[in-house]
Design a protein that fits this description.
The protein is built from two helices and four strands, in the order ββααββ. It is of the alpha+beta class. The chain has one domain (8-13, 21-94). The chain is elongated and about 85 Å long.
Length: 95
């Protein structure tokens, strides 16, 4: 007989997939900031003229759509691929 215990190790490795998802990023450095300021000024005027007759949700939607459409028109984008990420390994120790 031995005074040592047996150790059983079960491992499971997940490999990184080869498929890379794409994501779109804005290039703020190349943005047309003067036109964005003009768009948002127009948005402000629209909101201020309708603030007494509109609810908060409507005003928010007007603001949000104005900002997003101005970004789409005035800030160039580029598509990047995500880096491959290993999902690591799992260890299960049994005694």
């Amino acid at each position: 007989m031995s005074d040592h215990d047996m150790l059983l190790v079960t491992t499971s490795f997940a490999s990184a997939s080869n498929k890379r998802e794409k994501r779109t990023v804005y290039s703020y450095r190349k943005a047309n900031w003067d036109q964005i300021k003009s768009d948002l000024s127009s948005c402000r005027d629209t909101i201020l003229s309708s603030v007494s007759s509109s609810n908060v949700e409507t005003i928010w939607n007007v603001f949000k759509s104005s900002v997003l459409s101005s970004m789409k028109r005035n800030i160039p984008t580029k598509t990047l691929r995500k880096k491959l990420i290993s999902h690591g390994c799992r260890l299960k120790l049994e005694n």
